[in-house]
Design brief:
Glutaredoxin; Glutathione S-transferase Yfyf (Class Pi), Chain A, domain 2; alpha+beta; four-stranded mixed beta sheet; 2 domains; globular
Length: about 220
Amino acid sequence: MKRFYHWPLDPIGRTARLVLAEKRLAFETVETRPWAVHPDMDRFGPGAAPPVFLETTGEGRIVLLGSHALLEYLESAYPTPRLLPASHQDTAEARRLWRWCEDSFKLVNDNLLAERITQWVRRDRQPDSGALRKGAHALRGRLTFLNALAETRSYIAGRHLTLADFSVAAHLSSLDYFGDLDWDTVPDLRAWYARMKSRPSFRDVLADRIEGTRPSGHYADLDF
């Protein structure tokens, strides 16, 4: 039995969902909300928060908290397809950019994405215009860097599809739900993202709909 606790627009949770789908693993989902503590979290230890992945095997129950523990476990336990290259150098680069994505986009998510959620999902206060500007400015810098990678590489970390690609794609997809990406300014990144969106593992993510909101017009369009 596999169970995954997540909120659909959480970029970290989306990364895990993409990898689970890429490895064709069936799992039960439990939807959570980032502004409310799910009652099951107390069972998983102090400070536990989604995304959380549970797997029951013949050896007992495995509880995985945090994207790195979760995805490294999936890569080790279910190595087909490989999402970390055989080469040590290529694997190091994939891990570097995977970590960079999560760390670098935190500023964007804590400002731009959080305010969009406040504005369109929670609707409990007016969005903070300063936070929106700060997040949008930070996003432009990240997109410029990623576009430079996409201009010279087949995939984000090099020649192979890796966990870094799914991390970047997941983060961009959450922001794209609200239409916050100016794709015309990053054509090479746009072409890479179009390839990622076309993968079967992306179907469930593109089907996400949050109650009370509608995604941007091109969100689920594969030829955008």
